[in-house]
């Protein structure tokens, strides 16, 4: 019974992973990550400028 549950859980996780991965675009994800990093750095720079009076 436990083996059956483990097998079914494994199969369901694989199916969910495949469904999530269908619309995944690595280039779009990389661009989104780059924009996010630039925005975070801009916020940190602005905060540091205010804090240090520049």
Q: How would you spell out the order of helices and strands?
A: HH
Mean model confidence by pLDDT: 86
Number of helices: 2
The percent range for strand residues is: under 5%
Question: What's the number of extended β-strand segments?
Answer: 0
Distance, first to last CA: 67 Å
Topology (SSEs and partners):
Blueprint lengths: L1 H20 L4 H27 L2
Outline the structure in words.
The protein is mainly α and 54 residues long. The protein has 2 helices and no strands. The chain has helices at 2-21, 26-52. The termini are far apart.
Record keyword descriptors for this entry:
2 helices; mainly alpha; 54 residues; 0% strand
Give a brief rundown of this model.
This protein is mainly alpha-helical and 54 residues long. Helices cover 87% and strands 0% of the residues.
